[in-house]
């Protein structure tokens, strides 16, 4: 046996050994139910390539998997099928995942080789990643092909994988998984232990203590709006990896990731996986507090960790002016017209006064304080 062939065999055996210690990263929206094909190295052969496409790369390889579903596996999928719901017909689905295998891997994520083709029955999935994007970040996701799998114990399913080798090693896994809804994950999150109010309060006190004294009066404003929807949060939360106080609405975050999986904090863009999310009980108590009204979207947090809502002074002034505008100050309808004009004029002057704050002279935060002080 030549040295090169011996190295190839050793390399493959190394991959086999590495795979024993690898597992796929969990997908919150799917629960593994039954293993169909355990994590297996992809070893394609050029001579066996049967893919027919225009300008097929000469070095494209192919590996075929032949499998028959057992009666138990078939029943798991077929007996939980809802034909009345075409968007989610199958509660249990057939899932294919591909990853890269390398030294030091323990938990792997979905990653495709370049120019990947997956054929199940008569359907073909094609994934070609542009070179620049391929070099910058990983590209891959689970593939669900339940409708293409023949649910019969006597029929063999053919699954063909084609790709262009790039010097890296890849592996494939196939499972039956159960779909988990976003609402179920939200309920599960509510059942988990959140971060205590005392811990959050201590963090706030420490952060406000370290603030520059010149900025201390403007640094304790906290928005109750979710950065994703710009509406008030119902379930304030953040990742255990985040070092900021600001939160996002966990319900919205989970539902958005069901549509487009990113699992990144919308505030600081660090990893924010489902298992890393914790409800912030301090802010949960605030958004549920009877001290807040429907329109309140901002609070002031004091250095001792206590809080109060920010009064919307401008809206108060508008309400007062409107109240004067509609007051019946005189029984004579004609004479009552004139006071209305005066009220509007007075409000116009007041609006002018507020708008005349010079942005160059005062920073935005100080200008906000000025508005709050006006009564």
From TrEMBL:
<dbReference type="InterPro" id="IPR004181">
    <property type="entry name" value="Znf_MIZ"/>
</dbReference>
<dbReference type="InterPro" id="IPR023321">
    <property type="entry name" value="PINIT"/>
</dbReference>
<dbReference type="GO" id="GO:0008270">
    <property type="term" value="F:zinc ion binding"/>
</dbReference>
<protein>
    <recommendedName>
        <fullName>SP-RING-type domain-containing protein</fullName>
    </recommendedName>
</protein>
<keyword id="KW-0479">Metal-binding</keyword>
<dbReference type="Pfam" id="PF02891">
    <property type="entry name" value="zf-MIZ"/>
</dbReference>
<feature type="domain" description="SP-RING-type">
    <location>
        <begin position="211"/>
        <end position="292"/>
    </location>
</feature>
<dbReference type="InterPro" id="IPR013083">
    <property type="entry name" value="Znf_RING/FYVE/PHD"/>
</dbReference>
<dbReference type="GO" id="GO:0016925">
    <property type="term" value="P:protein sumoylation"/>
</dbReference>
<dbReference type="GO" id="GO:0061665">
    <property type="term" value="F:SUMO ligase activity"/>
</dbReference>
<dbReference type="GO" id="GO:0003712">
    <property type="term" value="F:transcription coregulator activity"/>
</dbReference>
<comment type="similarity">
    <text>Belongs to the PIAS family.</text>
</comment>
<dbReference type="Pfam" id="PF14324">
    <property type="entry name" value="PINIT"/>
</dbReference>
<keyword id="KW-0833">Ubl conjugation pathway</keyword>
<dbReference type="GO" id="GO:0006357">
    <property type="term" value="P:regulation of transcription by RNA polymerase II"/>
</dbReference>
<dbReference type="GO" id="GO:0000785">
    <property type="term" value="C:chromatin"/>
</dbReference>
<keyword id="KW-0862">Zinc</keyword>
<comment type="pathway">
    <text>Protein modification; protein sumoylation.</text>
</comment>
<dbReference type="InterPro" id="IPR038654">
    <property type="entry name" value="PINIT_sf"/>
</dbReference>
<keyword id="KW-0863">Zinc-finger</keyword>
<keyword id="KW-0808">Transferase</keyword>
